[in-house]
Amino acid sequence: MHVVATAGHVDHGKSTLVRALTGMEPDRWAEERRRGLTIDLGFAWRTMPSGRSLAFVDVPGHERFVTNMMAGIGPVPAVLIVVAADEGWMPQSAEHLAVIDALGVHHGLLVVTRSDRGDADLAIEEARLELAESSLADVPAVAVSSITGEGIDDLVTALDELVASLPAPDDAAPVRLWIDRAFTIKGMGTVVTGTLPAGTVNAGDELQLSPSGRIVKIRGMESLKRKVETVTGVARVALNLKGVDLDECRRGMALITPGRWSDTDTLDVRLRAGTSDLLPRESLLHVGSASVSVRIRRLGETTARLTLEHPLPMHVGDRVILRDPGSRRVTGLTVLDVRPPPFHGRGAAARAADELAEWPDPPTAHHLLARHHYLKVADFGLMGLPPVGRTADGDWRVDLGWRVSQSQRLSALAKDHALANPLAPTLPVEVARQLLGLPDRRLVEALVRPPLRVEGGRIHRPADRPKLPEAIAAAVRRLERELESTPFQAPEAGRLAQLGLDSRAAIAAHKVGAVLRLAEGVVLPLTAEPRAVEILGDLPQPFTASEARSALGTSRRVVIPLLEYLDERGHTMRVDNTSRRMRPN
User: Fold this and answer.
1) Does residue 197 have a cis bond before it (omega within 30 degrees)?
2) pLDDT > 70: percent of the chain
3) What's the CA gap between 164 and 181, in Å, rounded?
4) Helices 470-482 and 503-511 sit at what angle, rounded to 10 degrees?
């Protein structure tokens, strides 16, 4: 299916044209038919000579209903700009064109109606002058009369050629269906309609209602009044929702693929060239069928930060519109960042403006990663971008330039810590995370580069490791001699003190890697680790703590923390609550 919208001045024959093309009445309300004035969105469709299905979204032309007009044009890929031959270009013609141009809609037709009542060639010439500087410059033009039928066949041919030229939407894209109608049907419940621009919806799918966050299930679907099990964009679709009441759905809300859109109330945007001087401090933002109040903070000549009254589901690269209700001027915007970092400190906004000014339109994933320094793979999906960057332990991606600078910073932090703590020179990873202001310790570990190394949750700098005081080093040597033949018979606390390894000395020796301090008062020589791995590897697998105690010739006081230490080091692994086995090499 393909979908196009009408646009143009009030009473220029848009609805009459749709009736002539489809044989259907697009005006849904009795008041619209009585007054001959389209107030809300209308819908009709037909099969083209090529066999393609084409749906029309008929929008109101009156200035009082411009918000409804934007709701209809927003999600569609092509438009018919309609001008009456007997009246020519009019104020709402210009206003509708400004909206179309702001959205960057490049596909369409110029249709001059009422050719039997005016000079169609003159109307086409006048309209082309107005279109010349817009996104619809050089679109084909057709003159028609919906009363006599003149030109209708030519228009049908032109429409068939138009829809054949439209870019194919991505069937695998995440769904974002802006709701333009919501109602109930007896025996079925809540039904919503909208234009699906891309992606695929299946009966039984679960979608998220934005901005409420409610998960709803698709009970059934219709497209062009036919029941369907699957629909792909671009299409007009009606969805019967399960588990949601009518008062929870309204125009301007959206049904989205869960976990694939950023529900955001803050955006960094670029203004369309030539409109930056028209930007007020407060305005209305239009995207899809949504309209929301925004506060605007200018950043640079062509960039701004928007704060929305409530969140909307957005992607980087989205085209949106700002409309000043007072002047009725519209400004087209490109979304540059859907989760911009907050401003901290003097000059932060100016630095952001300088950065954004260098970005292309739209920016790439590399630009966003460079700005945010690190992102999870899921974050890229929320932004509508492919994941890029260096992998950092699973689902984190980091920017290379940031990683280089922060690795240097981490090295300096580790050196300063070693100098300030000679008896405990290794920097805990958690402390480094806090000093660097990072959300995850895995990011710290991704910054570790030689000569730094991570071991036991601490960052080591071998080149800066201070020597133990001679008294403690001598105590370590005495321990090694005493346990040379029985490395697992850890001395009791009193004996450790006699050897010169009281609690403080044992901690210092452990932190520089001179002994194994398994628990308070449980200290073994370094040779105990490889000897334990060798002995336990010869046991029938799996083995219990009791079997390990017997094989090592030690006590429960020693074997329990020793086995936990071997677990942490990756030598052993638990099988169940009572047994362990050696990990394969």
Assistant:
1) no
2) 92
3) 28
4) 90
Residue 330 and residue 246 in contact, taking contact as beta carbons nearer than 8 Å: no
Q: How far apart are CA 20 and CA 149, in angstroms?
A: 8
Q: Contact, 93 vs 125, CB < 8 A?
A: no
Q: What is the largest CA-CA distance in the chain?
A: 114
pLDDT of amino acid 310: 94
Using DSSP's 3-state secondary structure scheme, residue 449 falls into coil
Domain 263-385: give its CATH architecture.
Answer: Beta Barrel (2.40)
Are 426 and 438 contacting, i.e. CB atoms less than 8 angstroms apart?
Answer: no
Q: Which fold has domain 2-165?
A: Rossmann fold (3.40.50)
Residues 282, 31: contact at Cβ < 8 Å?
no
d(CA 351, CA 266): 18
Contacts of 417 (CB under 8 A, 6+ apart): 425, 426, 427, 431
CA 326 vs CA 90, 203, 541, 559: distances in Å: 19, 44, 80, 79
Summarize the confidence of residues 148-153 as an average pLDDT.
92
User: How is residue 220 annotated by DSSP?
Assistant: E
Is 51 in contact with 181 (CB distance < 8 Å)?
A: no
Q: How many CA atoms lie within 13 A of 450 on its CB side?
A: 0
The confidence score (pLDDT) of residue 234 equals 84
Average pLDDT over residues 414-419: 87
Q: Tell me what pLDDT residue 37 has.
A: 36
**Who contacts 245 (Cβ-Cβ below 8 Å, separation ≥6)?**
190
Specify the fold of 176-256. Answer: Elongation Factor Tu (Ef-tu); domain 3 (2.40.30)
Asked whether the beta carbons of 499 and 479 are under 8 A apart, the reply is: yes
**d(C-alpha 287, C-alpha 254), whole Å:** 11
Q: Please tell me the predicted confidence (pLDDT) of residue 35.
A: 37
Q: CB-based contacts of 341: which residues, under 8 Å, 6+ apart?
A: 371, 372
- What mean pLDDT is reported for the chain? 87
Strands 543-544 and 230-232 turn out to be unpaired
Report the 10 Å Cβ neighbour count for 138: 10
CATH class in words for 470-582: mainly alpha
Tokens 């299409």 -> residue = 235
- Gyration radius of the chain's alpha carbons: 35
Nearest to 85 by CA among 151, 18, 156: 151
Separation CA 99–CA 286 (nearest Å): 10
pLDDT digits (tens, 9 = 90+) for 45-97: 889 999 988 888 877 643 443 455 555 455 678 899 999 999 888 888 888 88
